[in-house]
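Chain A, query sequence.
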Amino acid sequence: MMAVLLKERYPMKKLLIVLLFILIFKGLSCAQADGLAVEPYAGGFHYRFQAEDEFLVLAYKTDTETAKCTVYSESGEFSGDVEMLHTFAESPLKVTVETLKGRELYTASAQTVAVEQTVPAVELPQGDTTRKLREVEITPLIGAVQYRFQAPGREELLLKYRSSTESGSVAIYAGEDYWYEGILALPYTYNNNNVVLTVSDSRNYNDFYEEMFRTDYPVPQAAAQGTGRLSGVTVCIDPGHQETAKLVTEARGPGLSGTKKTDLGMARGTMTRRLESIVVLEIGFMLRDALLQEGAAVVMTRETQDIYLSNIERAEIAAEANADFFLRLHCNMRDSETVQGIGIFCPYGSDYAKAIADRDGWEAMGDILLFAMQQATGQTKGNTTTTNQYIGNNWATMPSFLIEMGYMSNPVEDVLLSAQPYQQRLVEGMVEGVYELAVARGLIV
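Chain A, predicted structure.
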């Protein structure tokens, strides 16, 4: 019936034009291209696609924000929702899916759905317009930043943000006496990552304030200790480094001559820009809980970034805990982006190391841990190395393993090391390795 009415009202040529506009509008609001389906809704969009890789990068761009995040699917069927917290007006939306190596797989375009932004109705006094913010307070949060400042005469400002994974701007409005306060959500910025925050006039002509800070990070409460196959085993977890290093000189180890200066540097992600110290801390918390659930007793050398521990102090914490194993978590770095793999480093020459095993014995123990981690992650590259280079290993009175879990200089491994599903695989491999080591050493019958 509708077709008949349209035909009577419009000539066929005009009818085709109308239908074409309808199809174009529908294609903009809900797009599917190259196997990627994008369905926008108020405040975000839903995506669907298929791919062979388990880990991929999904990126989007609107007029006011851009972001990227790692997505994961074991089955190859990817789907999920992405929040767009700083896009309010209708805007073109471009969504792209890439491999971890940067090869584009899919791209699709659509139109966002407008979201009503509430503007406070406040009676503001008249006066001079400031070009400088007053009493600025910036408080980093987990996945967000809290701001508070005064800008007399400015009824509206532009809050701009930039991190390694997202950037954009959002209009903010003055409250009473031109006070601005609120929380800027940064859902796609890694914990403890650098963010640049800029406050500009509403037309983005002049910047009034700029600061770089690091987002906060969670310190999760430890899981309850269970009863399992690792009951009776104690493990000390040592998340390597800390936020601020110190240049100190330490004795190389009991029975070893000479001293060694600590290295001030640490790995930093070539893609994520994350510090090694926060990545290993995240994985350390996951490993702690997994070991506890298996029945092990667990002590951690550190649970925060703002602490300093020397290598010898770390080994002393393990000794005081009567630990059966000392797992020292690290991430590696090289000049070449192509190098990758897991490395296990064991001591052999200190008096403490000799009392535990000879060099062949240490290599055999390292291989047990390495193989378990390779089986869990699918990473086939890597090896076990016996060396007297690492002071924390040399001073350990129990089997001690410095575990280089991957290379942050390798773009793919860098992203994987911060992806929770891959972190979980690393943890599963280390838990299995601890179990097999405990059996080999007669701690578990």
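The chain has a mean pLDDT of 92. The chain is about 25% helix and 35% strand.
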